Amino acid sequence: MSLWAIVPVKPLRRGKSRLAGALTEEERAILNQELLERTLKTLSPLKELDQILVVSRDPHALTIARNHGAKTVREDGQPHLNTALTRATVMAQVHATQGVLILPADLPLLTQEDVLTLIDRAAKPPVAVIAPDRHGKGTNALLMVPAGLIEYDFGENSFERHCERIKKAGAKLEIVELPSLGLDLDLPEDLEMIRKMEAVKV
Question: Fewest CB atoms less than 10 Å from the CB: which of 55, 88, 111, 172?
């Protein structure tokens, strides 16, 4: 199976705005860059991924991505995550990929084993493998075979909406719940938890 990973990245200086009470803008920019580089280093060695595609409006983020061997898509105009992901998926389809894995760059505990677990569950398409956040509300990973199986609906409480769309599409739904995949870094409490676990340097 040919598979592309698509990684959406907010502008490094604007991402993680909900951490503004805990980190300065400069600290958040550094954190966002570290998270992006960590994600790329995690994904790049995996031979199960044919390509990594980073989507962002931030030229610096795209440069970092290319330095790690990833393809890039530059967003234009008003930012909209779902539109950007749809555009990136079409690009992957043009290159005849069979599946896509949407993986945000703010999963500080993501491991290669997590990604392989998602891929292993994507047998017998049409199938979608989805990983919720630790609250069971957001979508922290979404793997679809074939690519473009459902329209993206990322945003608040997206997990349930994605599951419903997968069911309506008549595809097999696989839910993967792993602590490392479930922790996305959005709130000060997430940051505090990660600091306690000493999994990343901030």
Answer: 111
- Write the DSSP symbol of residue 92: H
Separation of alpha carbons 202 and 195, rounded Å? 8
On the question of pLDDT at 78 being above 80, the answer is no
Instruction: Give the DSSP letter string of 93-160.
Output: HHTT-SEEEE--S--TT--HHHHHHHHHT--SSSEEEEEE-TTSSSEEEEEEESTTSS----STTHHH
CA distance 178 to 92: 27
In the numeric block, which tokens belong to residue 97? 């990929």
The reply to whether omega before 59 is within 30° of 0 (cis) is no
Q: State pLDDT tens for residues 94-142.
A: 999 999 999 999 999 999 999 999 999 999 999 999 999 999 999 999 9
